[in-house]
Amino acid sequence: MNILVINCGSSSLKYQFINMDTETVLAKGLCDRIGLEKSFVKHGKGDEQPIVVNKDLPDHKVAISSVIGLLTDSVHGVIGDMSEISAVGHRVVHGAEKFSESKVINGEVIAVLKECIELAPLHNPPNITGIEACIHIMPETPMVAVFDTAFHQTMPAHSFMYALPYDYYIKYKIRRYGFHGTSHRYVAERAAALMGKPISELKIVTCHLGNGSSICAVDGGKSVDTSMGFTPLEGLMMGTRSGSVDPALVAYIADKEGVDLKAVGDVLNKKSGVLGISGLSSDFRDVLEKAGQGNERARLAMDIFCYQVKKYIGQYAAAMGGLDIVVFTAGIGENNNSLRKQMVTGLEFMGIAIDNAKNAVRGEEIDISTEDARVRTMVIPTNEELAIARETARLTSY
């Protein structure tokens, strides 16, 4: 069974083509600058060096057709024709309360996704565009929507509700939704497998740390709390996002700066976080380098980030009444050993202790704990595409 995994942005389309019998990535690539000048497709077959094809991509339909053309190409392709695509799995950011699990896509599902646009105006429209483009090109091929929010639908009301007038929840569905759910689920399940125990018996804190970051409390395999909220702005400071701040600051900043609420929203989403504190960059690598050279604001940005991660680990251990595993994943979590060390320093009283030699890794799946640590600390590279492919196969293997 071959699954095509699609992740659509407004002007981009990432894809992986996976053989599910062996869970091998046969091909992967990126269509970039869709609808813009100088558009191109970057396509890689297996472990071969990727090729770049410069071509006009006026819309997502043309991009999808280009992907299929490359997958079936006599030189760079991996299948004979389109009929060898068994199903398509689509990453969809927001399913609101409508979807607590992945769904086979039909007209009803698409209609509900459009209802969710106001909750994710930047993400759901391109996700829907990608779905509709695939349906146009491959009308007979089964398709599945895999939602970033679905994993967090197991959160109890005391975790997801805000202390606002209850009518706002009834009328507007204002609540914590959480994101990165596909990643949190994948690494939690891998952690349980590495520990050799059923996930139903484990309490896990998963730390998805990248330019966008979130932390999740996974109790018995279910998400019971997560740091992102109604939008991905809540929670940890991130590359350009402020994370959680006093809500009164919105009106205060608007008044002091003489700007409207939208402008303040832009500040919180695009000019804050690591960029705002350091004044240098939103890229953690750049800021960490400058911190090492003695830049105080860069060091402060890293200290704030690590302190917040440490607090969430402690909070979620308390919320679950215990802790068995901490998992680090995504760009920072997988690749930055010094920040991992800083994030757990001071948590020794909880039974967390990492081995410095084991921690000196990048992008490897490994338990970095000391032998006698009561809580295991792991680095597990996330694989959202494989998780989406597995869900798609599960729902379409008739």
Short description:
Helices cover 38% and strands 19% of the residues. It is of the alpha/beta class and 398 residues long.
Query: In the CATH scheme, what's the topology name of the largest domain?
Result: Nucleotidyltransferase, domain 5
CATH homologous superfamily grouping of the largest domain? ATPase, nucleotide binding domain
Q: Give me the CATH architecture of the largest domain, please.
A: 2-Layer Sandwich
Order of helices and strands: EEEEEHEEHHEHHHEEEHHHHHEHHHEEH
* Domains (count): 2
**Number of separate helices:** 15
Report the sheet-strand fraction. Answer: 15-25%
Sketch the major β-sheet: 8 strands, mixed
Please list the strands of the largest sheet in the order they lie side by side: 5-4-3-2-1-6-8-7
Helix content: 25-40%
Structural class, judged by helices and strands? alpha/beta
SS elements, strand count: 14
Distance between the termini: 11 Å
Highest CATH level, the class of the largest domain: Alpha Beta
Q: Give me the Rg, rounded.
A: 22 Å
Task: Describe it.
The chain has an 8-stranded mixed sheet, with helices on both faces. The mean pLDDT is 92. It is built from 15 helices and 14 strands. The chain folds into 2 domains: 2-147, ATPase, nucleotide binding domain (Nucleotidyltransferase, domain 5); 197-379, ATPase, nucleotide binding domain (Nucleotidyltransferase, domain 5), CATH 3.30.420. The termini are close together. It is an alpha/beta fold and 398 residues long. Strand 2 (12-19) and strand 3 (24-32) form a beta hairpin.
Question: How would you describe this structure in keywords?
Answer:
globular; 19% strand; 15 helices; 2 domains; alpha/beta; Nucleotidyltransferase, domain 5; 6-stranded mixed β-sheet; 8-stranded mixed β-sheet; 38% helix; 398 residues
